[in-house]
Fold these 3 entries.
Entry 1:
Amino acid sequence: QITLKESGPTLVKPTQTLTLTCTFSGFSLSTRGVGVGWIRQPPGKALEWLALIYWDDDKRYSPSLKNRLTITKDTSKNQVVLTMTNMDPVDTATYYCAHVWNPMYEGDYHYMDVWGKGTTVTVSS
Amino acid sequence: DIQMTQSPSSLSASVGDRVNMTCRTSQSISNYLNWYQQKPGKAPKVLIYAASSLQSGVPSRFSGSGSGTDFTLTISNLQPEDFAPYYCQQSYSTPYTFGQGTKLEIK
């Protein structure tokens, strides 16, 4: 059974760096075709895709946030870490991580078939 | 970025109804389209992947169709647990954008 859990601070101040950890079980991030993605959702708004990392360390970022995001994996710890610099109140959201499956093992096509419950982050001074 | 337009933004229906909701993309994405359901306070759940493939464990009353730029999610015989927002997402190119959602409400 695949499970994922997000962890990190619930409150950060403007200009600070946010570090979120996704700890997972039930799969290995060294398995071909597997990845972990991050998605966020501001209160009452739609989902926004942020970043993903694949088994082969291929990393994809949202271009609008690319200069603020870094995604890394620790396969031995079954963790993926997302850092976001220079936080602003507009970054207040629930942040989700999800298991990504790329059935073709290459290219862009994938879907997110198991999600964590999400962690709420508020940016305020 | 590929723009995703879902319509309608909200939809009222009754238990037992059949409903369609659409997702239009700003450029062709082949069948690189997924549909998610999100119940209040919960994480999204994938229903349909690759435009028309039903995710394991999802009831067969959910179906997807389309390719290129126009896609449809159909729910037949609506059940009380189906009333929720639905999002489409493209995985053709980064950023892998979501639509703004269609909120399915009880009439």
Entry 2:
Amino acid sequence: GAGVSQSPRYKVAKRGQDVALRCDPISGHVSLFWYQQALGQGPEFLTYFQNEAQLDKSGLPSDRFFAERPEGSVSTLKIQRTQQEDSAVYLCASSLKQGKETQYFGPGTRLLVL
Amino acid sequence: AQSVTQPDIHITVSEGASLELRCNYSYGATPYLFWYVQSPGQGLQLLLKYFSGDTLVQGIKGFEAEFKRSQSSFNLRKPSVHWSDAAEYFCAVGENNNDMRFGAGTRLTVKP
């Protein structure tokens, strides 16, 4: 595709609901990243995939957060039992391969938990 | 652990004036350094990056940045700011580009 796409762009959830956020990386990009950006802050790393393998999930804030990329392309970030502190913009990025490569970001999904 | 500090939360400059946004990093080895720009409702767009070599890096939209190892800095500059440059600017540092750390951002306002 032309760029990284994310859906939905906006999501309102009631506290306790489960949500799923989708990321379509640039076609052919091996690496995929998820970041969380709280209001007024810079993005914070959540997790990283190389193809279908999740190589680093050290940034996931709790076991309520789960990410997958089963076929090495589209990725889904799932948040179970959402809490108000989960409200943030969730950014997805992809890069052509591992290592010294530019990360290309999607527009993000803005999640609001009421 | 690597970290990035952007000391200025908000900067206002007049259109046509020069701009410098500060970025300091803390990292043991030679880092990979990036500047991204984020407009409201938009994703992050890469302005420029430093991996190695020439310490003065040219980017898109007339921006440049200089890596100064002795000062642990990677400041972003532009000689003449345009109204369309108003946005949030983020400095980031990475090791193998697998785990980028971002600063808190500097919001740029451009006065007519």
Entry 3:
Amino acid sequence: AQSVTQLGSHVSVSEGALVLLRCNYSSSVPPYLFWYVQYPNQGLQLLLKYTTGATLVKGINGFEAEFKKSETSFHLTKPSAHMSDAAEYFCAVSPSSGSARQLTFGSGTQLTVLP
Amino acid sequence: DTAVSQTPKYLVTQMGNDKSIKCEQNLGHDTMYWYKQDSKKFLKIMFSYNNKELIINETVPNRFSPKSPDKAHLNLHINSLELGDSAVYFCASSQASVYEQYFGPGTRLTVT
């Protein structure tokens, strides 16, 4: 079984400061990893994904994440926060093989950006 | 232009009623999903269909029944609604060879 832990249900940063959202996973085999963002009253939008290859992946809106197998982590970062980054962020994993590719989500991190 | 659409966006109904939520995707994907997001924003898979065949059926009450008339549609029918069914339901789709899922805007179901 796979599981995802997001440390910190709420994170506040000042505009222009570094954003760091933490995600650790548990899986018997390396899974595929995703970060999604949810703005208020909207659906989920894919920020970035890791499947294979380069462990540092870049996504939309200036976000990036690094897959660290030894630490079973996939933390999300952005060098400089914007007010528009305020949203709920979800880390998710899916099996890397088989026909069942359901996403298992973390509990989410609410990002607040302070002016 | 909408990739994954759901109707209705809001649904308010009384306990005991039967309701349906519709989902359509125009991405040509072969797999569709239903997720439930509870009041604490926790997201959990409910069902998955691949080429109209049910491949994931998590532990949900059998009052919930998905139906896939074709690859582009996956509807969710709920019988005898209960207060605990109040949540936001998201439809998603993906292509087997490409792993990310695309989500619809969600349907907020409120049971009174």
